Amino acid sequence: xxxxxxxxxxxxxxxxxxxxxxxxxxxxxxxxxxxxxxxxxxxxxxxxxxxxxxxxxxxxxxxxxxxxxxxxxxxxxxxxxxxxxxxxxxxxxxxxxxxxxxxxxxxxxxxxxxxxxxxxxxxxxxxxxxxxxxxxxxxxxxxxxxxxxxxxxxxxxxxxxxxxxx
Length: 166
Prior knowledge:
With 166 residues, the chain is mainly alpha-helical. The protein has a single domain (44-166), classed as Arc Repressor Mutant, subunit A (Orthogonal Bundle), CATH 1.10.10.10. The protein has 7 helices and 2 strands. The model is unreliable at 1-9 and 162-166 (pLDDT under 50).
């Protein structure tokens, strides 16, 4: 019996079907616990998770305006502006004139910011890999099949959810 079958039988409805809420109740505590365990074992960074997320977005999108960052991060403009201000003070990002619209300003990672982002990302990748070391090859393959599903969830949830204050 596979893990997915076991889960459906334990938390699904009478027909064995999984609802979004039932799946959430099963997965949320596990994801929360896993994230806490691996981040606690990682070296301390001067950056918060929210700041690291903004830096990952800048690495993925390249230089962008604060409103674009706010939209990508699903946060409000003042929250994004405040985070950028703190990252700028830490030397992780800098504001540069928009080459297409001289009135506009874009935010981009500095060399120091890119270096810190890569250091933290590499370390956290190693911590997460340590969590996966005891898995069988079949279990690792199941995990690999989850990657596109998780990406889709993040893409669609971020696009449809309103801004929050985090």
